[in-house]
Design a protein that fits this description.
elongated, alpha/beta, Rossmann fold, ten-stranded mixed sheet, 10 helices
Length: 275
């Protein structure tokens, strides 16, 4: 499904953990990697060219080990705003998705200081894979094999649903979870009936081995999604991103952003515009 993945490499101590996740991408159909390190320009100052050469050598070393693992690998060191450059290279290289490491920050810190990962998911118009790289998270090394789809049945998550269905045929039995508020609000019973019918329709289309369904009528969606993922031993959470503008996402947040911020496993965020 993701033949070519752009990998955002930052060479931080925790960022090294991201490199160990790259072999897992084979289970998602990845054969080609584009390793990108962005040297951030500060207040219009361009970093010394020696910095670029240093990082290019480090990328080449990483690329060499990945080629031994069977990947086709390209590298690029670029200078500029980090997210802008990542998105530009992803478009130029026709990447299927971007892989980046994510840190578990508080909402307040994200609001004022920003986060490369969160900025990436706010602005990306194609799929973004986020791997938690905090030392507190135990990351598996086996290939992705049990996807979990979070859906509300809306058109905004249609692309995420399509990605989930595409992955199912190469995975163990998946999980579909939907979180509503109908337990506390009886007037939302029609919503439960709609999402039930929608998931039944997905079941009819799903390839073997199919999926289990979890419908929850209460709870905070991002927390319930992560809880179910842990209980069902899902190793990939798939969520859709609505077509909001970045300022709304920054100020208001979203279920997708909250899942990406706090998940302790791989997260695939699929924007509405993805095909």
């Amino acid at each position: 499904m993701f033949d070519q993945v752009l990998v955002a490499v930052d060479f931080s101590p925790t960022g090294e953990r991201l490199h160990g996740q790259l072999p897992r991408l084979r289970a998602l159909g990845c054969r080609r990697l584009t390793l990108v390190h962005v040297v951030a320009s500060v207040y219009g100052r361009v970093p010394d060219v020696s910095h670029r050469d240093h990082y290019q050598q480090r990328l080449d070393t990483l690329a060499g080990s990945l080629r031994k693992d069977g990947f086709e690998v390209e590298t690029e060191v670029t200078i500029g705003p980090i997210v802008t450059e990542l998105l530009r290279v992803a478009r130029d290289s026709q990447a299927s998705a971007i892989l980046a490491g994510s840190h578990g920050h508080s909402t307040l810190r994200d609001l004022f200081l920003g986060s490369t990962a969160l900025d990436l998911i706010r602005h990306a118009t194609f799929p973004v894979l986020l791997a938690p790289i905090d030392q507190s998270v135990i990351l598996p090394t086996a290939g992705v094999c049990r996807p979990l789809l979070a859906t509300d049945g809306s058109t905004a998550v249609a692309a995420a649903e399509a990605a989930f269905m595409s992955l199912l045929k190469d995975c163990r039995r998946g999980v579909v979870v939907s979180v509503g508020q109908w337990n506390e609000r009886p007037e939302l019973e029609a919503e439960r009936e709609l999402i039930t019918a929608h998931i039944q329709h997905l079941e009819q289309q799903a390839p073997d081995p199919g999926f289990d369904t979890v419908l929850l009528g209460e709870g905070r969606p991002s927390e319930e999604i992560e809880r179910v993922a842990a209980e069902r031993e899902a190793d990939l959470i798939i969520v859709g991103k609505r077509g909001r503008n970045p300022i709304e996402d920054l100020l208001l947040g979203s279920t997708a952003a909250a899942v990406c911020r706090h998940a302790r496993r791989l997260v695939l965020l699929v924007p509405t515009s993805s095909s």
